[in-house]
Amino acid sequence: MTTDLSPRPGGTPSSSAVPLLTASGVSRSFGPTPALLDASLTLYPGEIVAVMGPSGSGKSTLLHCLAGVVRPDEGRIEYDGTDLTTASDTELSALRRTEFGFLFQFGQLVPELSCLENVALPLRLDGESRRRAERTAAQWLDRLDVGDLAAKTPGECSGGEGQRVAVARALVTRPRVVFADEPTGALDSLNGERVIRLLTDAARESGAAVVVVTHEARVAAYADREVVVRDGRTRDLGGVG
Ligand SMILES: Nc1ncnc2c1ncn2[C@@H]1O[C@H](COP(=O)(O)OP(=O)(O)OP(=O)(O)O)[C@@H](O)[C@H]1O
To answer: Rounded to an integer, what distance in angstroms lies between the CA atom of residue 94 and that of residue 193?
Structure first.
């Protein structure tokens, strides 16, 4: 049997592979405000893509549409054969729970739970026994160099430590895609660099693809490819560096 930290089958990046997630012609407005206009993005299995662009250009809206959190007004988003624009709310929430992992700028850990319980939570929600979930969670905390924080609550951790716990929680279900929205935005440059390095290393090892929204070039440097969003429109800049 493979361990919980092993790569998922088919998780090696390859430009010749079939895309895992494809968005084409996606538009979305909030009232009179157009947030996305004819946006497109293709994500291959195991690939790390940075989404960059000025404030208010539509990066988070694109991420939310790709993750099935926001429904576009127009366009098509296909994840592994499922059209997210027509999927039911039940189908979308099952996808988000089993196939996707999420990482935000801050505030995503449950303050009342220990770090170990926070990381075990997605597995518990998926029906895993407490013992198994916490054993896997402990492996992930070790992987992210925060094994010694297992019994602490998020309030007892520094910002960088909390983000590393959050990375463990985003990866613990072995998702096929991790959506990260400014995961280093609240950290100093040293801690930010450590978090993005650990996130991308752990994602590559486990075969997860990553879509990371960032305004920091040094964070985007960890990606395989860069997509820029400007005034709601996407432009693929190809390989980074
Ligand atoms: N829920 C919402 N209700 C109303 N307007 C929204 C909503 N979400 C986004 N917008 C608007 O859509 C546009 C794009 O916002 P979005 O958050 O996607 O940009 P962003 O590039 O992620 O910005 P930032 O870098 O500042 O986080 C902005 O004009 C924003 O005000």
So the answer is: 32
* Range(s) of the domain holding residue 144: 107-174
Q: What is the ipTM of this complex?
A: 0.97
Residue 224 lies in a domain: yes
- Cβ within 8 Å of residue 197, ≥6 positions away: 222
pLDDT (tens digit, 9 = 90+) per residue, 96-111?
Answer: 988 999 998 876 899 9
Mean pLDDT across the chain, nearest whole number?
A: 90
Measured in Å, how far apart are the chain's first and last C-alpha atoms?
38
Q: Give the residue, out of 27, 28, 29, 30, with the most ligand 1 atoms within 8 A of its beta carbon, to mutate for a pocket test.
A: 30
- Ligand 1 pocket test target in 57, 63, 228 with most atoms within 8 Å of CB: 57
- Shortest-distance Cα residue to atom 4 of ligand 1: 30
> Domain check: are 219 and 117 in the same one?
no
Mean pLDDT, residues 153-179:
95
pTM: 0.91
CA 35 / ligand 1 centre spacing (Å): 6
Residue 11 in domain: no
CATH number at residue 25: 3.40.50.300
Same domain for 69 and 180, yes or no, is: yes
Q: Ligand 1, residue 36: give the atom nearest the CA.
A: 14
Query: What is the DSSP code string of 182-206?
Result: STTTTS-HHHHHHHHHHHHHHHHHH
- 5 within some domain: no
